[in-house]
Design brief:
Number of helices: 14
Oligomer: single chain
Shape: globular
Distance between the termini: 55 Å
Number of strands: 2
Structural class: mainly alpha
Length: 325
Amino acid sequence: MPVLILRWANDPDLAQRFLAAAAAIMQLLLVSSAILLWLMGEAMVKRLSRPWISNGRRAWPVRLAAIGGLLLRGLAIGVVACVLFSLLSLLLWSTSVTWRYPDILPRAFSLAAWQRAGIGLWEPLGTSLILAVVTTLTPTVLAIACLEHEMHVRRELIQRAERWLFLPLLVPEVSFLIGIQVLLVLIGLNGGWLAVAWLHLLFVFPYVFLTLKAPWRAFDPRFERMALVLGMSPWRMLWRVKLPMLRGSLAWAAAIGGSVSLSLYLPTILGGEGRIVTLASEAVALSAGGDRRVVGVYGTLQALTAALFFLMALVALRRRRWAAA
């Protein structure tokens, strides 16, 4: 359905846009119904399991917890294996000469695909990195401001608004991005960097906030009081005491935000109207063609760029530990 909605929304016939809007609302209702069914199932399980939990018998809950732990470990291993297999497949395709069925591996390897795509890689790579940096630093600063405001001024206000932050992650992208695209056209911001950065911000900010929320709220306030008693201003205390102590969480939040920004395709296309070229948009566009080698090049480079953010976070944490030692 998202593919059809996007096709109808981009159709030159304006009548198809009404069909795209109706289909987007239908998809939104479908997802909302699924979420409602899940919540009803949670409430039913909670109600039915309450006597079983409170009867004092702990044998079955312990066994179920152990079985659930094993299933989760197996699921995690399976997901990691699928991701590694996909990355290996992309790398093999990007360096293969011929790879025909039923060969397990390519018959010959070459870097010709990388050389052929080398000149055209710089623009999408640079654009992706700039967007990732901008849409990671901005949500990080906003998340810090929200959490500091929560800790010192209005905790209830932030916690009430928190549930609305995750709507872009729950609602189908195409069901509201088309409406935002119309809004961008009306205010004259369509097709530019600002529009793409704003749409990326809608999806990056929830991940950054979710990563920083728990460690920020678990921070011991006695460190802040001690710094204030010693004469530090609130801004200096935040910069010299709190942020260095939460450097690990900040590094991981930045890495997650950068990787999320690198993977965004639909916000880039609808916000930039095809004028802003990133690795994600190029990889999806090239996947419709017949040359899997070039697709492998762009997919491998996108994965390596995302891994670079996590590698930088690890290096920053290691340097901090070495300096402390």
